[in-house]
Specification:
Blueprint (H helix, E strand, L loop, with lengths): L5 E11 L6 E10 L3 E5 L6 H8 L7 E6 L2 E2 L5 H11 E4 L11 H5 L1 H5 L5 H14 L15 H13 L5 E5 L7 H17 L3 E5 L3 H4 L4 E4 H4 L1 E3 L2
Parallel strand pairs: 3-8, 3-9, 6-7, 7-8
Antiparallel strand pairs: 1-2, 1-4, 2-10, 4-5
């Protein structure tokens, strides 16, 4: 991996939440282009915060994050949003689905709202992805009628639908049984390999962690103080 160009670089990153004792202090780390990386560590150490910083959802306070040769601290908000919409797929812990929309419309939501994204290839991928995770028969159902496990699979398909260059996945199998967890990880890993994408995931599951070539133990990499 050392011979590959890093697609993500973190340098002297410090982040604090207002009115909290929490502090995330990361001296340095890199993720190579095309690598599959998992971040582990105890609850409260900052794994989700780090994913939000890497993807530009949370703003940098001190230090630098470089993604695809672009320094996030130097980019205006609109440029970061465009970088995120075109290049990143994100599976959130809380899913962030629109209850009154169908599964189909939720999966295609980022493509629909992103005017620079080609809709036709995404629509062509919809059936394949939904079939892989066992929700193809539910595509016209509103997500409000789904179980949490089914919602999680919708969120994974939405993150992958536009062939992102970087896949950020925050505990993407937390609500799934072992069989369906394996299906989700197989899909994420295979989609990344087929499209030369980079994966940065958060997971507590030992079976999942064994799938990754780069494991970042966050509590040993950083200084953290959590309330």
């Amino acid at each position: 991996m050392q011979n590959k160009t890093p697609v993500i670089s973190v340098d002297h990153l410090i982040f604090r939440y207002p009115d909290s004792n929490f502090k995330l202090d990361i001296p340095k780390f890199e993720v190579a282009s095309g690598a599959q990386c998992v971040i582990t560590g105890p609850s409260g150490c900052g794994k989700t915060t780090l994913l939000r910083l890497l993807s530009g959802i949370e703003s940098i306070q001190t230090g630098e994050i470089t993604i695809k040769n672009q320094k996030l601290s130097k980019l205006p908000h609109l440029a970061i949003r465009n970088l995120r919409n075109l290049n990143f797929g994100f599976v959130f812990q809380d899913f962030r689905l629109v209850d009154y929309l169908s599964l189909r419309d939720n999966i295609l939501l980022g493509v629909t709202l992103g005017s620079a994204i080609d809709r036709a290839p995404a629509i062509a991928r919809l059936d394949k992805l939904s079939d892989r995770v066992g929700i193809a028969h539910l595509l016209d159902r509103p997500v409000s009628k789904l179980s949490r496990g089914e919602m999680q699979r919708v969120a994974v398909c939405r993150a992958l639908i536009h062939n992102p260059a970087i896949i950020f996945a925050d505990e993407p199998t937390a609500n799934l049984d072992r069989k369906n967890s394996a299906i989700i990880w197989d899909l994420i890993n295979s989609e990344a390999r087929n499209n030369a994408a980079t994966v940065v995931a958060v997971s507590h599951d030992p079976d999942s962690i064994d799938r990754f070539e780069q494991v970042i133990e966050l509590d040993s990499l950083i200084e953290t103080v959590a309330s």
